Amino acid sequence: METLEITKDTDIKEYRRQLIVRLSKHDLTQEEIADVVSCSQGLVSQTLQNYATDGFSGIAPVPHSGPTSGLDSSDLATLEQLLSKGASDYGYSEDYWDRSRVQKLISSHFGLDYCLSNISKILQKIRWS
Q: Which residues of 80-94 are buried (b: 16+ CB within 10 A; e: fewer)?
């Protein structure tokens, strides 16, 4: 029989799913479990279904990596070299970089389109902010 193991690394969602399973063993209805855990009856139902099918692995958290960045570490190093040449090397009469100019450089050199707020984050990564 699988045992419920809650550690300091257990996140709140995982804890809640494990608690739902534990409470279901005490003959509580799904509605009662939902009230105790402060969630919907639908979440209780889905959690118990996943547990019935796959055990605790069925209710384990699934990591979400999110979208990948368009610029990898090599690209960031290249961008830093391009910026080091100065804005005048890219046809600007005044030799300074702003987010709009960096945005155009990234678009033309790497073929990637970023919004201005993400340009700020990129500049922070390469310590150009």
A: eebbeeebeebeeee
Please count the structural domains in the chain.
Answer: 2
Give me the domain span that covers residue 118: 73-125
Instruction: Please give the distance of CA 28 from its chain centroid, rounded to a whole number.
Output: 35
Q: How far apart are CA 4 and CA 67, in angstroms?
A: 32
Q: Is 65 part of a structural domain of the chain? A: no
Same domain? For 52 and 77 the reply is: no
Within a domain: 66: no
Token reading at 49: 């279904």
The residue to which tokens 């922070």 are assigned: 124
Residue type, 16: R
pLDDT digits (tens, 9 = 90+) for 64-93: 777 777 899 999 999 999 999 999 999 999
Tell me the whole-structure pTM to 2 decimals: 0.51
Q: Are 87 and 95 in contact (CB under 8 A)?
A: yes
